[in-house]
């Protein structure tokens, strides 16, 4: 105890900043702490790359870090200490497994089981390959939808979203969903994501706020019930099919739901997951992957519309590698040789990270970073965009220049996992890093290559692409991409 006291006397918390500007913004816009990035960026430029902010008097402060070396020290050198998540509050507790899912579980055995299940069973390259027919189907549906609008100016985001949701639904439930099912899932997803990221009244004395705001609470319960009504029949169909496949049809031989049916929790007497828990994990699978990938795809295509010379350079690469082949779709194997395509996708992920902050981390014991004390239990927020745009790491960081990823060949210049050095943190770094990054990059490369080979992407005459940002769940284009699509090949 004496040693602990001495330690605390010797080291201090990072400098405190006034919560007033942040609180004012949160109350005026009814938003969450994730949606105040521009204000935090201003604070950073004033107070430096690490500071503390206490939003509620006498509560634990949150600590903000916006520097690559500090993030590396925290997430890699002190990886275990920084790998937990803050305590979970309503309504998210209600919406997840025994209170948790992969992204919200504290660092420990439940998190390990759930995360390993996802990475080893569904996101393993051999499993990702199994879904190739699903990717081709989702792409064909997207191309058909875009062809049918190619005489107009197309606002492409909804088409992208529908396609990526269809694809992740295939991976989740092993089934091609129809348009109505996709729409229903998307609108419930949107509602539940909003409750997660908007100003959260239920975080404050839930027993009282659930009563005071009972209508809103009931809406959340109702949305989850509707989601269960859609997901559970598909999960049960997988259970039946696994138990007796004879004579029954299945679009895909494996899916994420199959792996959930096989999970047993050793610390809870080896029980399997309940229906609610499986619904919650399927919801997480879809919500973690859809908006992020859709946003990244829209930003990438916007940059290619804005920078026609980059689009031509990409097309030359695509044609030189697939030139003689008249196949309808560029296959996954062909993507491996497309170094410029990879550079375009990486540069887009660097310049336009879908999330400007990682999910909140929390520390499991007192730790010193950069001479400051980070006390056990505080919430730590890492500023992704500030790191990705750091002028000390990147020349002219706000320019869109895929060539910066060409030097030395793909993968040598930048270690996307940040293990050696952090230069960008779009997917986080360390133990809690996004487990879906390989899948997300594959989807982006696959869609971008095929979309560029299929159409000339041009901006609307007299309406140049506007790269202004707006914060929703991810940082989206304030003015969604509207493009003129001219088919390159006769159908
Ligand atoms: C461009 C697309 C994506 C981006 C930019 C992205 C980004 C991120 C970030 C920044 C984190 C937080 C890391 C941290 O707190 O340290 C995260 C976590 C996570 N992501 Fe992704 N992600 C993407 C796609 C996906 C996909 C496709 C999936 C799965 C299908 C996925 C599943 C998850 C999960 C389960 C977590 C929680 C990990 C944990 O807490 O252990 N993500 N992602």
Report on this structure.
By secondary structure, the protein is an alpha+beta fold. It has one domain (2-487): Cytochrome P450 (Cytochrome p450, Orthogonal Bundle). The chain has helices at 2-10, 20-29, 37-47, 68-77, 109-122, 125-130, 132-148, 157-173, 179-197, 206-212, 214-243, 256-261, 275-306, 308-322, 332-335, 339-351, 384-388, 437-454; strands spanning 16-17, 50-53, 62-65, 153-155, 264-265, 271-272, 361-362, 367-369, 372-374, 379-382, 455-459, 469-471, 475-477, 482-487. It has a 5-stranded mixed β-sheet with strand order 1-2-3-10-7, with helices on one face. A 3-stranded antiparallel β-sheet has the order 4-14-11. Strand 12 (469-471) and strand 13 form a beta hairpin. Protoporphyrin IX containing FE (HEM) binds at residues 102-103, 115, 285, 288-289, 292-293, 296, 354-355, 358-359, 426-428, 432-436, 439-440.
In short:
This protein is of the alpha+beta class. The chain has a single domain, classed as Cytochrome p450 (Orthogonal Bundle), CATH 1.10.630.
Number of domains: 1
Computed Rg: 23 Å
**DSSP, total strands:** 14
Bulk shape: globular
Uncertain ranges:
none
Protein name: Cytochrome P450 89A9
Subcellular location: Membrane
Main location: membrane
InterPro entries: Cyt_P450 (IPR001128), Cyt_P450_CS (IPR017972), Cyt_P450_E_grp-I (IPR002401), Cyt_P450_sf (IPR036396), Plant_metabolite_P450s (IPR051103)
